[in-house]
Structure formats: C-alpha cells, structure tokens
Design a protein that fits this description.
The chain contains 13 helices and five strands. It is α+β, with helices and mostly antiparallel strands. It folds into two domains: 138 residues, Beta Polymerase, domain 2; 134 residues. The chain has a five-stranded mixed β-sheet.
C-alpha cells in the first residue's frame, strides 16, 4: 500500500528499476525480517513500512533503504531483548539492524512502538505526518494504514494550524533579517536568509495541503507542486544573492535582496491562501500569534 506522496520524486525513466527495487525489498521483508528467528514469533504483532528516499521514488546509488517495524507495546521489550541476548544490539538500546539486499542496496530497519507512533501523530509531529504521507506499507496486521488514514489528508483544524505556524515562522525569519541588514552583519544575514528560504518552501507545501519534509527534500518536493513552483520562481536568484557582496552591505532593510525576495514570496503565498478561502487575522498581525 502506497501513500499520497509515495513515488513523488520518481523519474519516468526509472519506473522499471523502481518496481524491481520495491519487489526486492518486499522479498527481503518476507524472508529476512518476518522469518528472522528473533522476530518470527511476533510477526503478526508487527507492521512493516518502507520510508525515506526509496519510498519517494529515488533510485540511485546513494539512497539507502529505510524500513520501520511498528510493534504492539507488549512486544517491544521482548523483541529488543532477544536481539540483546544474541549480541546483535547493545543492552538497553533501540533496535537498529543493517539491511543488505541481494542486488547490493543497503540500509537498516528500526523498531517503533505503535503507541509512540499514535502519540506522534496526535501531537501533529511533522516528521511522522510526513512519513505517513510517503511510506509504502508491506505488512500490516496492526492496521497502520487505518491509523494513517485518520490524519491524511490532514484534518482541517490540523492543516490550518500547520499553515498558520509555517506562515508565522516565515514572517518571523524575515523580520529577523532587519537588524543584521542595517548593521551589515554578514553571517547573521546569511543564516537568516537560509531560514527564510526554508520556511518559504515549507509554507508553500502546507498551502497545498501537505505536511512538509525534512530539509534535504524541501526543494525537490516543492518543485513537484504548483505553489512550490511559484515560490521557487520568486527565489530564482537566491544563489546569486548568496554570492553577491552587496547582499551583506549595511543598508536600509527594504533595499536588501533577501528582504525583497521574501516580499515576492509572501505575495504569492497570500494569493494562494486567499484563493483557498483563508482570511485569518494571523496573515496580517502575525506577531500576535507567535507561540512562546
């Protein structure tokens, strides 16, 4: 079972290679995980999903295999205990086991309590909302698919909260440019400009209705989404600004290239949010809604 954003980054000429890899992973899960002598007795108490770059459709020599085992609470200690007694993991550590596919790909699998996953989703933790959006479920006696379906598509209240927080964090990052720009403080300008870039993409992805990914996937994911493309177009010259000495000279903040870039981005985001019927007070008086 694949999620809404599974294979989002799959290139058309990689379909066959990707399918072969997914089948190889499925065979490995069946033979080397579910029938592992330290796991087999709990095989019906574990759901297994593929996460990470492979689930996104990345097929190259760099991406590794990220497999997550999700178990019932009462099974966690017994499974990790068996691996400890076998000398395969250190005592009192979490389960982290290397994966070696016959075709040469490597990676690892980890073990997570179902209750921990439920709590992470209930708290709106972005990493697990993202994982739920891209994961491929291979084995599911715990019905993790149904758990994910409670949170995806993102419920309206949660989605609004995520959009609000992303937009406020963008505005806050942009505001934090003001003093460094007026002082000509190069490193603070550099650091805050990167924060503006990241929050602009996170905000664009949430406008589309999705949780946002880890930083390394922000640009490639945004490139696949209409609002993300519009925002990236506004920041086309970001690399040029980073290299220009003029970007770090003391000046009135409104004259700085990074500040102007953020204003272009903000115009697009406001248009897109309002097209979706969002006219919230935090779009204007954002500072009043910052969380401590």
């Amino acid at each position: 079972m694949t999620a809404s954003l599974s294979n989002l980054l799959l290139k058309p000429d990689n379909h066959q290679q990707n399918n072969e890899l997914l089948q190889e992973i499925g065979s490995y899960i069946l033979t080397d995980i579910l029938n592992h002598p330290l796991i087999v007795e709990d095989s019906m108490n574990i759901s297994i999903l593929l996460d990470g770059s492979t689930a996104l459709g990345i097929v190259d020599d760099i991406s590794d295999i990220d497999i997550i085992l999700i178990c019932r609470e009462e099974c966690y200690e017994s499974i990790t205990g068996r691996f400890e007694r076998a000398g395969l993991i250190p005592e009192q550590s979490s389960l982290f086991v290397d994966v070696h596919l016959p075709g040469g790909k490597t990676g690892h699998y980890t073990l997570l309590r179902l209750s921990g996953l439920e709590q992470a989703l209930l708290k709106g933790q972005m990493d697990w909302l993202w994982n739920a959006s891209v994961s491929c479920i291979y084995h599911d006696p715990l019905d993790v698919k149904a758990l994910f379906a409670q949170f995806l598509p993102l419920p309206p209240e949660l989605l609004m909260s995520i959009r609000k927080n992303a937009y406020i964090d963008l505005r806050s990052a942009a505001k934090s440019l003001d003093n460094p720009v007026r002082r000509g403080a190069a490193f603070p300008i550099l650091f805050q400009a990167v924060e503006v870039f990241k929050w602009a993409l996170r905000c664009a992805i949430t406008v589309e209705g999705y949780p946002y990914p880890y930083d390394k996937w922000l640009v490639p994911v945004a490139e696949q989404l209409p609002v993300g493309k519009r925002v990236l177009d506004c920041m086309n010259d970001f690399w040029l600004y980073l290299r220009e000495d003029a970007s770090y000279v003391a000046m009135y903040q409104e004259d700085n290239s990074f500040v102007k870039m953020e204003k272009r981005v903000r115009k697009v985001l406001l248009e897109e949010l309002r097209l979706r019927g969002i006219e919230e007070p935090w779009l204007v008086e954002w500072w009043k809604y910052m969380e401590g």
